[in-house]
């Protein structure tokens, strides 16, 4: 809750295609808030290279404070050549990874559920992907993304040495494990925990801690363990076997891009990054498409906004408790696709809509469904 009891949702488009796709997600969110008379105000904040050019910071203190106080954040994307040109210290202070860490957004949910209309756009056969419904739960504030020591140093012999450290405490592992098990209980109660315990000590700890939480607190969960390399293969061989995949930060990053192909395009994938439940019953939450800034197509209005729009559905479901509206929005997306609406990434060379026209197509389907 911010000043004067306002409840807010922060919108941060960020870099590359982020602002374009987020504008479509924002438009739809604003419509639902209006239609349902929900007590939320949308607050736009600057993030990334444009913020740096104006304020000398990728995220100002005021913008971060707005994020911290919000009920939810709808985020676009980070990165790209302009962002990479920012001096390292300024780039690191307040970047997306710092926001994840500061808000303790430890559980990153990446659902993979292909829509039948797009089976043809996947590189995988329809019979392999038809009926897939899985969620990757990626630990988001630990592991090699944050471990110390890290850096590049020059050795005495003149060689350069690059170092990153992969480490997890049992507390970190147990925290994300419970989030995955809780989520699994709302689905089919099956969890596949993914690590590399055959070569990594931190992987062995991961496996042991996940199993211990299962045995002592979640006996109803069906748990199995899989090596990360095998999981990459199983995701393209037989993705239907999975319900919830629980894994660490780096493996989750890689496996979720891999799993994206099940849906036909990385442009389709939403994500939710959730923090711990606070005393007032709320939790910090950031929603963003998985696709990233895609600088090569930025500014052309050809990016697929469905990743952002699906992220809005997750926001409705997880932060606003509007499950029915989330279902309606997902139905509106399915209807727009069934009616032939396609952005370039899913058009297979056929006719394609601009980013804004795709947003409009979903919005008009939604108007029909909003009762
Ligand atoms: C993701 C992205 C980010 C990550 C990048 C942009 C830092 O790839 O959210 O998957 O590696 O976590
Ligand atoms: Mg990634």
Can you offer a commentary on this structure?
This protein is of the alpha/beta class and 371 residues long. It has two domains: 1-111 and 266-371, Isopropylmalate Dehydrogenase, CATH 3.40.718; 123-263, Isopropylmalate Dehydrogenase, CATH 3.40.718. 41% of the residues lie in helices and 20% in strands. It contains 14 helices and twelve strands. The chain has helices at residues 18-35, 49-55, 61-69, 81-84, 88-92, 96-102, 126-129, 170-185, 201-217, 228-237, 249-260, 306-318, 323-338, 355-369; strands at residues 8-14, 41-44, 72-77, 107-112, 134-139, 147-154, 160-165, 190-195, 222-227, 244-247, 270-277, 283-289. The strands form two sheets. A ten-stranded mixed sheet has the order 2-1-3-12-11-4-5-10-8-9, sandwiched between helices. Strands 6-7 form a two-stranded antiparallel ribbon. It is globular. The mean pLDDT is 96. The chain binds 3-isopropylmalic acid (IPM) and magnesium ion. 3-isopropylmalic acid binds at residues 78-79, 96, 253, 290, 292. 3-isopropylmalic acid (IPM) binds at residues 78-79, 96, 253, 290, 292.
């Amino acid at each position: 809750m911010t000043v004067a009891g306002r409840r807010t949702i922060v919108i941060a488009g960020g870099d590359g295609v982020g602002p374009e796709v987020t504008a479509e997600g924002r438009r739809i969110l604003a419509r639902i808030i209006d239609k349902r008379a929900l007590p939320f105000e949308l607050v736009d904040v600057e993030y990334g290279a444009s913020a740096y050019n104006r304020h000398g910071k990728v995220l100002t203190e005021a913008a971060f404070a707005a994020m911290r106080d919000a009920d939810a954040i709808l985020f676009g994307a980070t990165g790209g050549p302009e962002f990479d040109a920012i001096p390292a210290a300024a780039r690191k202070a307040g970047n997306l990874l710092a926001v994840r860490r500061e808000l303790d957004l430890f559980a990153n949910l990446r659902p993979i559920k292909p829509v039948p209309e797009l089976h043809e756009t996947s590189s995988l056969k329809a019979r392999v992907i038809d009926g897939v419904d899985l969620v990757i739960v990626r630990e988001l504030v630990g592991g090699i993304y944050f471990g110390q020591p890290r850096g590049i140093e020059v050795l005495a012999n003149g060689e350069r040495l690059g170092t990153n450290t992969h480490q997890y405490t049992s507390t970190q592992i147990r925290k994300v494990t419970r989030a995955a098990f809780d989520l699994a209980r709302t689905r089919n109660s099956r969890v596949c925990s993914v690590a590399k315990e055959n070569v990594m000590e931190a992987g062995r700890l991961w496996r042991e801690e996940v199993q211990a939480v299962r045995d002592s607190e979640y006996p109803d969960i069906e748990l199995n363990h899989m090596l990360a390399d095998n999981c990459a293969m199983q995701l393209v061989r037989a993705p239907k076997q999975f319900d919830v995949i629980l894994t660490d930060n780096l493996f989750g990053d890689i496996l979720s891009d891999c799993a994206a192909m099940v849906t036909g395009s990385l442009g389709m994938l939403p994500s939710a990054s959730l923090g711990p439940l606070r005393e007032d019953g709320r939790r910090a939450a950031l929603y963003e498409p998985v696709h990233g800034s895609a600088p090569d197509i930025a500014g052309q209005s050809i990016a697929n906004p469905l990743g952002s729009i699906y992220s809005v559905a997750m926001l409705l479901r997880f932060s606003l408790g509007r499950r029915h509206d989330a279902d309606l929005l997902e139905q509106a997306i399915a209807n727009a696709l069934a009616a032939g609406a396609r952005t370039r990434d899913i058009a297979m060379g056929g006719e394609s809509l601009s980013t804004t026209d795709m947003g409009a197509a979903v919005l008009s389907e939604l108007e029909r469904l909003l009762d």
